[in-house]
Every structure is written in C-alpha cells, then in structure tokens.
Amino acid sequence: MIENKVHAEASNFPANLSKRDVYTRLLTLAEALFEGERNWVAEPLPAQGFLNIMELTSNLANAASLIYHALKSLPAPSNQINWAGFYTLDPTSLHPGRERQLILGPFMGKVACQRISYNRGVCGTAAAEKRTLRVDDVDTWPGHIACDAESRSEIVVPVMVGETVVGVIDIDCAAKNCFDEVDAEGLERLAALISRGCDWSNGNSPLSLPNLERAKTEL
Fold first, then answer.
1. Separation of alpha carbons 48 and 209, rounded Å
2. What is the distance between the terminal CA atoms of the chain, rounded to a whole angstrom?
3. For a Cys staple, 157 with which of 6, 36, 43, 169, CB 3.0–4.6 Å?
4. Which of helix, strand or coil describes residue 172?
5. Main-chain dihedrals φ then ψ at residue 80, nearest 5 degrees
6. CB 111: neighbour CB atoms within 10 A?
7. pLDDT band at residue 37, thresholds of 50, 70 and 90?
8. Helix (H, G, I), strand (E, B), or coil: what is residue 83?
C-alpha cells in the first residue's frame, strides 16, 4: 500500500516496460492512490452561490499525472503526448434550456479550453455519444478544437456512472497515429476505476440527485 503522503515515486515508470505493462502499473498505482480518497470536488461555497465554485482535487489530479508520466516513459509516438487530463460534466448545464457542456478539470500540459459543448470537438462528441474516440489525425476531424496547434492525434474516453457521463479522459499527442487499442483498453479500465473510486453522487457532489433537483428550482 502507498502511504498517505507525498509520493512522487509513483510517477516513475521503468523505461523497459511494454505499453500494456505500463497501463497495468498505472492502474495498480491509481487504485492505491485512490484508497481512502473518494472526493473529487470540494463542497460548493454558499457565499458564492450554488455550484459557482468547484475545486477538483486529489483523484483526478493524481490520475492525470500518472497518465502523463506513464506515456512519457514509452517510446515514440507515445512519449510525444503534450496534454493529458480531464473534462468533467458541468452540472449547471443540466438545467432546462441550457446546452450541456464539459468544464476543464485537472491536467498535465499547456493551458486548455475551459468549456466544451456536447457534440463539439472530440471531447464533446465522445461525451454525447458515450463512447471512446481515437483520432489518428485531428486535421481530418470536422470541428476539431485546436487548443494546442502542436496536437496531431487524440484519444477521449468517457467516465461513466451508470448511464451518465460525468467526465472524460482526454489525451493529445504531437504525433499522428499515437493511440491504439491498448491505449483505449487501458484508459477505459482507468475510467471504470475512477468511476467507482470517487463519490460522484454523494450529498456534497454537484452531481448528486438532491443538488441537481435543488438547482432546477434555484436557477
């Protein structure tokens, strides 16, 4: 078990591992880091209004770091990733008359687009269609959102709680054809671990049913 302290060594991946073994190690480390750390957001601050402040914390931040360092430990093209992180469902966008959207979460890389509407770009399409999307050449994807002009390929994996998309894992790469079935499989397993390792629907979460019902009457 990894002790509950700063554990930067968890980001170290031996250079001789296969991609499949790297994902196995990533999942093992993520499970250990998530132990006893089920919160993914801070409580809304009442003084700021309902759901106006959300602070994404430990589990998604550690997962983003693990993904980034895991892929950087592999040979090209995997080590040419330039962004790895999360977009999460913006619960305020679930209100009647509002367009559903994702909001930027923890990540490793350059600054990124803060909000992405469903059915827009690779992230929004993956969220709307509830499926993993691999894009070998982003220039061929209609409506691709170029947060970083250096990105050439991308993979997006939804994080599902039941039938609800609560977020997506998003990874960009500066090389074309970076991602394959091993990446998709490993990231889908990580998404499932994140889904069951976080209290997405507890009473303090913006995605809890009581909070959503209250939001419908307050906004």
1. 21
2. 44
3. 169
4. strand
5. -100, 15
6. 10
7. low
8. strand
